[in-house]
């Protein structure tokens, strides 16, 4: 082997060693600062990891855009119908007053919260975009209690890393990290444009996560679980990216 | 057999005389971008068919008046298309492929952009030269293209004015605009840089511009392929793969 090619190999070897060390160091740092998405595995893990890390760094103190009242969409599109479930229908007949959300997992005082109790919490309103991954969107005024307030009422244990939330509809749930769960605009919404949230928009209670696409805003919420581990069960829509800030 | 006369390890004088038509970096970034382009186009079309309607402004949905509609069936039953059937929904992997390819093409574009500035590739080879933009020269170049005249041998080594205009538009306008309009559709990015959305007229405007930018890039690629065929498919492909339009043997 000539001198030139030996030097070349040596340089290539050093460069790849530095590269591997660099990636390993970046991964350690990313883990420490909560920059690793639960969706980091699989063939699209690279893209998901880059998006999540970049957006978590950028959005640490960001607020979803808020609009003026005259920008509210005249025809907000309800992309869903009321669940055809006896339980839902009887609740609807009773005005949803006793609609309950069970709150458990890594909280100090697991228990349940009715719609009536939820409305006793300080109300938060925001005029924000709901953007669906399909491409359509609308702007509405959403009113509810912030998820952060609800979680603090039940006492968040320090190990908490994710919040999983379930719909009354079977096999429909999703989850967010604590950065979004404790964000001031993430709310359990019960009113839209000044009226009770209609069934087509997830009434009586919908999770609103305005810094992510619409599919993270699960409708007909009945259960919230705080956890330190998603065990790959972060969403039933497996092929969709877990993090949807896009 | 000029090659065999040269001792291994030494630089072949006959090959080093002329620099390659395309540098290694240009060739590698060209083919990575090609791969990304087709991945982004395929996945983009797949996402588009879930809502083949376009709007202007901040918001738009099946209940609001569209700017225009693409008359194709959709992959979601909630969109009024006039068709009685719904296409299969493939948005899961399509979206993931779209964003992963977007990251790859952005990194590739950054590498290409920085090296193009440092090596003066942009100034020397890519930006249109002043004399080429003057009326007579420009109209002759357009006339030659319209008559499908085969390019002169001198173009083996450099780009003509129309090529420079086309490549510069893609590199400095269409590509950055694509990244910008793509990011402007992200609620998270919009929360950090709201002006990136409002400057475009709103989130739905960003989506519409993203679509028209795609049309322009597809037209560019079609014309680009047609021109490569006209100029000599073999030599141009060889130049973009191996660096030189003709094999080293023939060059001697």
Number of strands of chain B: 2
What is the helix fraction of residues of chain A, given as a range? 25-40%
Indicate the structural class of chain B: mainly alpha
Radius of gyration of chain B, rounded?
22 Å
- What are the low-pLDDT stretches of chain B, counting only 5+ consecutive residues below 50? 1-14
Strand order of the largest sheet of chain B: 1-2
The profile of the biggest β sheet of chain A is: 5 strands, mixed
Note the beta-strand portion of chain B: under 5%
Task: Kindly report the average pLDDT value of chain B.
Answer: 89
The total count of strands of chain A amounts to 10
* Fold-level CATH name of chain A: Sulfite Oxidase, Chain A, domain 2
CATH class of chain A: Alpha Beta
Strand count, sense and barrel status of the largest sheet of chain B are: 2 strands, antiparallel
Order of helices and strands of chain A: HHHEEHEEHEEHEEEE
- Give the strand content of chain A: 15-25%
Task: Sketch the topology of chain B as an H/E string, one letter per element.
Answer: HHEEHHHHHHHH
In helices, the fraction of residues of chain B equals 55-70%
Care to describe what's here?
The complex is a heterodimer of chains A (246) and B (252). With 246 residues, chain A is an alpha+beta fold. Chain A has a single domain, classed as Sulfite Oxidase, Chain A, domain 2 (Alpha-Beta Complex). Chain A contains six helices and ten strands, in the order H-H-H-E-E-H-E-E-H-E-E-H-E-E-E-E. Chain A has helices at 3-32, 45-58, 86-93, 115-118, 147-154, 178-181, and strands at residues 100-105, 111-114, 124-131, 137-146, 162-167, 173-177, 187-192, 195-196, 206-208, 221-227. Chain A has a five-stranded mixed sheet with strand order 2-1-10-5-6. In chain A, strands 3, 4, 7, 8 and 9 form a five-stranded antiparallel sheet that branches. Chain B has a domain at 128-247. Chain B has ten helices and two strands, in the order H-H-E-E-H-H-H-H-H-H-H-H. The A-B interface holds A 2, 4-5, 44, 46-48, 50-51, 55, 58-59, 62-65, 67, 71, 73-77, 79, 129, 131-139, 210-213, 237-241, 245-246 and B 9, 47-48, 50-51, 53, 58-64, 76, 78-79, 91-93, 95-97, 99-103, 185-192, 194, 197, 203-204, 207.
């Amino acid at each position: 082997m000539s001198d030139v090619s030996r030097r070349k190999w040596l340089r290539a070897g050093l460069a790849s060693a530095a590269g591997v060390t660099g990636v390993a160091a970046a991964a350690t740092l990313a883990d420490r600062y909560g920059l690793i998405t639960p969706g980091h595995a699989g063939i699209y893990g690279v893209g998901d990891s880059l998006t999540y890390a970049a957006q978590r760094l950028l959005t640490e103190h960001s607020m979803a855009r808020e609009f003026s009242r005259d920008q509210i969409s005249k025809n907000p599109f309800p992309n869903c119908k009321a669940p055809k479930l006896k339980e839902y229908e009887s609740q609807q007949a009773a005005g949803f007053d006793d609609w309950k959300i069970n709150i458990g997992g890594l909280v100090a005082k697991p228990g349940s919260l009715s719609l009536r109790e939820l409305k006793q919490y300080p109300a938060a309103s925001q005029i924000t975009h709901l953007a669906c991954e399909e491409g359509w969107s609308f702007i509405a005024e959403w009113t509810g209690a912030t998820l952060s307030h609800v979680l603090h009422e039940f006492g968040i244990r320090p190990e908490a890393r994710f919040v999983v939330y379930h719909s009354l509809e079977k096999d429909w749930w999703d989850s967010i990290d604590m950065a979004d769960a404790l964000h001031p605009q993430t709310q359990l919404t019960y009113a839209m444009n000044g009226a009770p949230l209609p069934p087509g928009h997830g009434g009586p209670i919908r999770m609103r996560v305005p810094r992510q696409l619409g599919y993270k805003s699960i409708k007909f919420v009945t259960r919230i679980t705080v956890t330190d581990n998603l065990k790959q069960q972060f969403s039933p829509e497996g092929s969709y990216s877990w993090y949807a800030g896009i | 057999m000029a090659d065999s006369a040269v001792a291994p390890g030494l630089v072949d004088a006959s090959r080093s005389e002329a620099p390659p038509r395309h540098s290694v970096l240009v060739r590698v970034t060209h083919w990575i971008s090609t791969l990304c382009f087709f991945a982004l186009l395929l996945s983009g079309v797949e996402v588009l068919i879930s809502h083949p309607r376009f709007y202007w402004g901040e918001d738009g949905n099946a209940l609001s008046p569209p700017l225009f509609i693409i008359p194709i069936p959709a992959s979601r039953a909630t969109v009024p298309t006039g068709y009685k059937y719904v296409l299969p929904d493939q948005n899961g992997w399509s979206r993931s492929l779209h964003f992963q390819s977007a990251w790859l093409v952005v990194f590739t574009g950054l590498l290409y952009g920085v090296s193009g500035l440092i090596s003066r590739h942009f100034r020397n080879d890519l930006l249109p030269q002043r004399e080429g933009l003057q009326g007579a020269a420009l109209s002759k170049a357009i006339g030659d293209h319209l008559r499908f005249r085969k390019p002169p041998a001198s173009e083996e080594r450099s780009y003509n004015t129309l090529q420079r205009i086309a490549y510069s538009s893609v590199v400095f306008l269409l590509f950055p605009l694509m990244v910008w309009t793509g990011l402007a559709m992200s609620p998270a990015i919009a929360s950090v840089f709201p002006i990136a959305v409002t400057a475009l007229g709103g989130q739905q405007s960003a989506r519409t511009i993203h679509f028209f930018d795609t049309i322009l890039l597809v037209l560019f690629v079609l014309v680009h392929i047609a021109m490569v065929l006209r100029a000599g498919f073999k030599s141009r492909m060889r130049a973009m793969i191996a660096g030189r339009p003709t094999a080293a043997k023939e060059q001697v």
